[in-house]
Amino acid sequence: MTIRRLFIANRGEIALRILRTARRLGITVILGASEADRASLPARLADEVVTVGPAAPGASYLSIPAQIEAARQARADALHPGYGFLSENPEFAAAAEEAGIRFIGPTPEQLAALGDKLAARAAAARLGIPVLPGASFETAEEALAAARTIGLPLLVKAAAGGGGRGMKRVDEEADLAPAITLAMAEAQAAFGDPRVYLERFVARGRHIEVQILGDGRDVWSFGDRDCSVQRRYQKLLEEAPAPHLPHSVREAMEECALTLARALGYRSAGTVEFLFDVESGRFYFLEMNARLQVEHPVTEMITGHDLVLHQIRVAEGQRLGLPARIARNGHAIECRINAEDWEQDFRPSPGRITGARFAVGPGLRLESHVTDGTPVPPYYDSMIAKLVAWGKTREAASERIAAALSLTAIEGVASTLGLHRRILADPEFRSGGVDTAFLARRLAAWRAGGPA
Questions:
Q1: pLDDT at residue 191, as a whole number
Q2: What gap in Å lies between CA 98 and CA 218, rounded to an integer?
Q3: Nearest Cα to Cα of residue 13 among 404, 416, 388, 418
Q4: Which of 17, 225, 231, 291 is catalytic?
Q5: Which CATH number is 167's domain given?
Q6: Are residues 99 and 143 in the same domain?
Q7: In terms of residue numbers, what domain contains 58?
Q8: Which residues, at least 6 apart from 178, have a Cβ–Cβ distance to it below 8 Å?
Q9: When you count CB atoms within 10 A of the terminal residue's CB, does the N or C end of the chain come out lower?
Q10: pLDDT in tens, 391-449
């Protein structure tokens, strides 16, 4: 089936990203926008705009009936969910297919299988993929017994969803029950599913992920990314490939990712996430995100492949016929620029952007929906831009993005620009291979005005 009319069920920079590729393919683009986004840049650039509901996400971007009705009204023959919102919701994918609208993503069955982290862990273990010691439980007594078996410290993690929500670290037995209660409440609020489980905590871990793509028959790896620069389990900076990762570990991770994808007969883009234990040199499966990732541009920069284009081709039923090994060239780094005051514990900073200046030039890529005068509503994710730089080496990419950050300015709202400048100048980061606790170690000194 050739896709002629594409409905984008998302907003912001990812809506623009999808729009650009669809336009290259000659596809008519219809944007489903909330009332708060009717005047947004994606809405101005789309061929058609349909209002999906009021500003509140629950009545617009997170409403399956509203999105499906808007796509029907637009006579769309395909729907791209982007990331976040309903992108990994199997009911949304099924509703689209039932309405005769092709869902650009995995099958509803694959989304259901991977959306449950407990089920995904079990599937990975059956395939011989290493997983961290962990356990589910029904009662407080079972939780305490499991914690003693796993050992402290450990993490309480939500069985559904991600992004650090429903995740709590426990260092003492006395803190276990309160952490479970809090994690369950967060998981219920964020994902509508209160289930949590326990998993061993790795003190010095690196967050490494492998980008895969499948057409329902064959699967390919597009290499790895390092996403270890995080705050509260939320990524701030990503790079590809992961620096200073042992070659044997890199190859084993890719093979594990492909093994899981093949077992599922996976369709579309997906990311298999691992935790690399710096001290032991071992790695463990964390989860598989069955969607396009925020950080996909760094992979596109080193491979030259358009992952959204591949997603569309797969949704049309095409076999991709890509080389068995996807070539990779150079290094790429991405900085997520959020409307947050990082010096005030990352407090969100909604408002209106009174000035936006971004660096442009060779080896740079900007993903942003904001310009002078763009409002930053309080209802949605705080990310306003992604700045990406490529270089022949990691050092060259680091220098290029640091220079670009120095020429970038956001006025009217607080942003994380200053934080990224400090990260790029930090000797430990510049040496490569920081762990997930890196940012927490640095923040207190930086907020106190310590050296950059």
A1: 78
A2: 26
A3: 388
A4: 291
A5: 3.30.1490.20
A6: no
A7: 5-104
A8: none
A9: N
A10: 999 999 999 999 999 999 999 999 999 999 999 999 999 999 999 999 999 998 898 77
* Number of domains within the chain: 3
For residues 121 and 372, what is the distance between their CA atoms, to the nearest angstrom? 45
124 inside domain:
no
Number of Cβ atoms within 10 Å of the Cβ of 148: 11
Within this chain, do residues 234 and 337 fall inside the same structural domain, yes or no?
yes
For residue 270, being part of any structural domain is answered with yes
Q: How far is Cα 192 from Cα 177, in angstroms, rounded to an integer?
A: 21
- CA separation, residue 191 to residues 54, 56, 94, 166 (Å): 21, 16, 18, 9
CB distance 255 to 122 below 8 Å: no
pLDDT at res. 416: 97
- Domain CATH number, residue 17: 3.40.50.20
What integer is the mean pLDDT of 106-131? 94
Same-domain check for residues 327 and 209: yes
Band (pLDDT 50/70/90 cuts) for residue 450 is low
The reply to whether 181 and 256 lie within a common domain is no
CB 396 within 8 A of CB 388: no
From residue 89, alpha-carbon distances to 184, 205, 380 in Å are 19, 29, 18
Q: How far apart are CA 202 and CA 196, in angstroms?
A: 18
Evaluate if residue 349 carries a pLDDT over 60.
Answer: yes
Does 217 participate in catalysis according to the annotation? no
In a domain, 78, yes or no: yes
Same domain, 254 and 355: yes
The pTM of this model reads: 0.94
Task: Write out the two tokens for 154.
Answer: 């450990």
Which residues have CB under 8 Å from 55's CB, separation 6+?
34, 35, 36, 377, 379
For residues 279 and 184, give the distance between their C-alpha atoms in angstroms, rounded to a whole number: 31
Q: Average the pLDDT over each of 56-65, 157-166, 168-177, 193-202 and give the range with the smallest value.
A: 157-166
